[in-house]
Amino acid sequence: MTTSPATSYRALAEATSDLETPYGVLDLGALRTNAADLVRRAAGIPIRVASKSVRSRAVIRDVLAMPGFRGVLAYTLPEALWLAREVDDVVVGYPSVDRVALRTLASDELLADRVTIMVDSVDQLDLIDSVVGRDGPPIRVCLELDASLRLAGGLVHLGARRSPVHTPEQAAKLARAIVARPRLRLVGMMAYEGQIAGVGDNQPGLRKHAVRAVQWLSARELAERRAAAVSAVRRIAPLEFVNGGGTGSIETTRAESAVTEIAAGSGLFGPHLFDHYTRFTPRPAAYFVLSVVRRPSPRHATVLGGGWIASGAAGADRMPAPVWPRGLKLLPAEGAGEVQTPLTGPGAAGLRIDDRVWFRHTKAGELSEHLDAFHVVDDGALVGEVATYRGEGTAFL
Q1: Residue 120: phi, psi to the nearest 5?
Q2: SS3 78
Q3: 11: Cβ–Cβ under 8 A, 6 or more apart, which residues?
Q4: 8 A C-beta contact, residue 76 and residue 84
């Protein structure tokens, strides 16, 4: 895989100047550089592409062709079935209660061989059994271990609230319940340490010191607990893979001998949520562009649209960031609006009607839900476009 430098904002703007807004842009040089850096950081551990952070089959396909990447971590079962027509290894990162999709999986040998579903409770196993029946190809199953840090006897919970399976004993108990089901085949384990992977440890102010302390403690605790849980489950069933981590935790996750692969996706696009990490600095690779349609005052310029807000706890860090021209910022009283977004700052005075403003989304794949395609720029030239899931007429969540 060759890498090339990120294209400057000015060159990106010149290459796409004939397009009508709103439009999305993918800087191919930055994407390639980010992919190479993920592989470097993983240090030989295969990377499973987190599809929710991309949501473009063309981009997923191209990344999987690069050395160091293997398989997809999907976010819904219908999406996984769709991807599995051309990808031979798809793990669904979240449990599914989609009965139609479960029946489709259970009745198709090719899909059953390529797709692995996620479970974290006996209730889920009961639902799956009630839908798929006894006859047909075996259903591949992955057991999810909770990766959160729990302190003070569980009164303090740091991390995403995902699986109820926290201890090695709980993991072994669920593993035994899985292998007792005739159609289910336990093939993998997963744990996502969101409190490390998804929280920047180099944020402005004093908070970064608390984040670093928590992440150091969490990494030590999880390494010991995950190793014990994997060992306990391996005594019950042979595991093909143990998946862990995310873009922000590659260094700590790869250090665990129990982990055989790392999930990552956001690091490919480099959204601004990942601007504040000490371990890596992704290059911005994905943008959206809006036009100035109003000048409410000499100090303000207003673009049409812009309310492409990221999921998560509501706050200023969920807002898109205007990055070109420089010197622009959102108004705290209005933020990014559904149909218009006023901007201020030193750069606003120089904007005129029909000028373009370039934005970075807070997160990665959510940008694809607003676009039918990304226009691809390579080395300052517009070289084509790649469809998003939306552009292919699909929407899974």
Answers
A1: -145, 15
A2: helix
A3: 377, 380
A4: no
Residue in 1, 9, 4 with CA at minimum distance from that of residue 287: 9
Q: Which strand (E) or helix (H) includes residue 158?
A: strand 156-158
Specify the pairing of strand 340-344 against strand 300-304: antiparallel
Domains belonging to the chain, first-starting first, are: 29-266 (3.20.20.10)
Q: Would the pTM of this model clear 0.85, i.e. be above it?
A: yes
Q: What is the DSSP letter of 22?
A: S
- β-strands 139-144, 300-304 pairing: unpaired
Neighbours of 173 (CB within 10 A): 14
Q: Which of 390, 381, 373 is nearest to 23 (CA)?
A: 373
The model's pLDDT over 263-280, given as tens digits with 9 standing for 90+, comes to 999 999 999 999 999 889
The pLDDT assigned to 38 comes to 97
Q: How far apart are CA 30 and CA 246, in angstroms?
A: 19
SS3 303: strand
- DSSP at 239: -
Cβ atoms of 215 and 223 within 8 Å: the answer is: no
